[in-house]
Design goal:
Layout lengths: L3 H13 L12 E5 L5 E4 L3 E3 L2 E5 H7 L3 E5 L4 E6 L2 E6 L4 E4 L2 E4 L5 E3 L2 E5 H7 L3 E5 L4 E5 L7 E2 L7 E7 L2 E6 L8 E2 L5 E7 L5 E7 L10 E6 L6 E2 L5 E7 L5 E6 L11 E6 L8 E6 L8 E4 L5 E6 L7 E7 L4 E7 L13 E9 L5 E8 L2 H6 L1 E7 L7 E6 L6 E3 L5 E6 L10 E6 L5 E4 L5 E8 L7 E7 L20 E5 L5 E3 L8 E7 L6 E8 L2 E7 L7 E8 L13 E5 L2
Length: 574
């Protein structure tokens, strides 16, 4: 739920107090990155009271808006789509869509040009703003397409859930020419996944679009976009999950208190009916303990549940069946000493990922320090047929999607590397369980890897994303709204270790989210033209023409470029 936008907003707040006083007309340039990735420079910025003002007509034109000027009242009216902004010369207030708004700096004149607050106007037109103190520039990133567009009129074997400007849309590729169906309007939707039979899509929804808002609730909608309903009246906590066998959702909710405290329940919602009726059951854990993470066992009859360390109990991983009966799988250390909270101790196991045969459980061991957790945590594998200590696999970021078991449960693909930036020092590794957990480094020099996914047909090849490392967070990479890893492509690795690129594209694009059809004949992937939007493509992995299916897929790149939650989710129709 965190995003690059959140990070940049916080960074700008911190930097605001560090910007030195500048001349009235600073030699700064605003670079606007348009929705189609064109760059437009705006010169003659005015810097006053730690705020930047820009010429109204130049800024509006770059953002594809229109300006009307009333010289009698000194009023400029800026319009774009359904948005209207009124700005009056000398006034410290503006009117946006009939609502009066207080400005940080008043509207001014510079010669014959009306100078307006750059951040206010840009964000009012759904663009984001970032400053660079290294080269005295301002970057304005305009809003992406207002809705998704179906670019391919023939059928393709998939149902697609995607987000666009916070809204949820569905596309049924099995129906030729079937356009995108809008599910939510306004607020923010985050995709959680398709049911095993593809009849339902689970998603989070918040009526708010504010940064760091935590009022998300769990919803489900039918595959045709009808019958959307809220599953629980409480806010959802953690990551909900479908059973691998039936249409049952496991989830946890938050308490009514402020913050992120779970209410101690692991809940089940049964959606096997043809309508939106459901039955919800709560599985109360020992001492009403909080639930940090859970994962369905492959048979769908139980779940692995992580219970955090507290002053009452040590860190636990338990197996809980659908009747609420619990058995311990792992006990780590002792409870916290009375009156103490030790940040270096393992606090919780997260990212739980079962092997398909149910023998192994991979996970991340997170300490009590949030800062340390963000930079990388220990990766472990528990062998449920052995009494030996868990296998240590090194350090990596705690994304469950970066742990991937081969269909035969013999190999675990994972991304290893220290540091919170997902575009730097992240390499693909394989743990060979048949060789006693032998660790194999599959990375490349100067390359960054992410999102491993196994094929479902023997001899079980691996797909992953690979591109050149790019320290976009440093401020030296001329980011300007471009993709975070320029030139990143979808790669494959065969069972014998041979690696090759499966996709190709322009150097300023990046490919993510590889998905193979069950028979391996179709490869689907997301191609980003900017950091926040792109298109769904597909092609035969054995070679063939790339086809653009859906344009206008937008979303957040996540905290530090992880691209979670994902912008799209695909259900393969057999």
């Amino acid at each position: 739920m965190s995003s690059l936008k959140h990070f940049i907003s916080l960074l700008l707040i911190l930097l605001a107090g560090l910007i030195p006083a500048a001349p009235a007309f600073a030699e700064w340039t605003a670079t606007v990155t348009t929705a189609d990735s064109k760059l437009i420079n705006i010169e003659g910025l005015l810097f006053q009271d730690n705020r930047v003002l820009a010429p109204a007509r130049s800024l509006a034109a770059a953002l594809q808006a229109h300006v009307d000027w009333d010289s009698a009242t000194g009023t400029a009216t800026v319009t774009k789509g359904s948005d209207t902004i009124q700005l009056v010369y000398g006034s410290g207030e503006a009117i946006k869509n009939s609502r009066r708004v207080t400005l940080d700096v008043p509207v001014q004149m510079a010669g014959d040009r009306l100078m307006v607050p750059l951040r206010f106007v840009s964000e009012a037109l759904h663009a984001s703003v970032q400053y660079s103190l290294l080269n005295d520039t301002v970057t304005v990133i305009s809003s992406p397409p207002e809705k998704p567009v179906l670019e391919y009129n023939s059928s393709f074997p998939a149902r697609v859930a995607l987000t666009n400007n916070g809204d949820l849309w569905l596309v049924d590729g099995t129906k030729p020419g079937s356009g995108p169906v809008q599910v939510t309007r306004g607020g923010t939707a985050e995709i959680e996944g398709w049911s095993p039979d593809g009849r339902w899509l689970m998603y989070r929804y918040s009526e708010s679009s504010k940064d760091y808002d935590d009022t998300y609730y769990l919803w489900a909608v039918k595959a045709d976009g009808t019958g959307a309903f809220q599953i629980d009246p409480k806010r959802v906590h953690g990551t909900p999950a479908w059973s691998p066998k039936t249409n049952i959702i496991a989830y946890s909710t938050q308490s009514s208190k402020e913050g992120y405290e779970p209410d101690g329940n692991l809940k089940l919602a049964f959606l096997d009916g043809t309508d939106n009726e459901k039955t919800t059951t709560s599985l109360l854990l020992p001492d009403n303990s909080g639930v940090d993470c859970f994962s369905w066992a492959p048979d769908g009859k139980s779940l692995a549940v992580s219970i955090p360390r507290s002053q009452k109990q040590p860190l636990l991983i338990n197996r809980v069946d659908l009747n609420g009966e619990s058995a311990n799988l792992l006990t780590d250390g002792q409870p916290y000493p009375a009156g103490e909270y030790q940040y270096l101790l393992n606090r919780s196991a997260t990212g739980l990922k079962w092997s398909p045969d149910g023998r192994y459980l991979a996970y991340y061991m997170e300490p009590g320090s949030a800062s340390m957790t963000a930079d990388g945590v220990n990766i472990q594998v528990l062998d449920l047929k052995q009494t030996e200590p868990p296998l240590e696999l090194g350090s990596g970021l705690g994304y469950a999607q970066w742990l991937a078991w081969s269909p035969d449960s013999t190999r675990l693909a994972y991304i290893r590397g220290y540091g919170r930036d997902a575009a730097v020092d992240k390499r693909l590794y394989i743990a060979d369980m048949q060789a006693g957990g032998k660790i194999i480094d599959c990375g490349g020099a100067g390359q960054v890897d992410s999102q491993p996914v196994w094929s479902l047909t023997k001899p079980y090849g691996l797909l992953f994303c690979r591109g050149k490392e790019n320290n976009w967070m440093s401020g030296t990479s001329n980011f300007q709204g471009k993709v975070l890893v320029p030139g990143q492509r979808i790669w494959s690795m065969t069972a014998d270790g041979e690696k090759k690129s499966l996709t190709s594209g322009q150097a300023d694009t990046a490919d993510y989210a590889p998905r193979l059809s069950p028979d391996g004949s179709n490869l689907f992937y997301l191609r980003l033209q900017r950091y926040d939007n792109g298109s769904l493509y597909y092609k035969p992995p054995a070679g063939g023409r790339e086809v653009e299916l859906i344009r206008g897929i937008t979303g957040s790149p996540g905290f530090y470029g992880s691209y979670y939650p994902e912008m799209l989710c695909i259900y393969m129709v057999r």
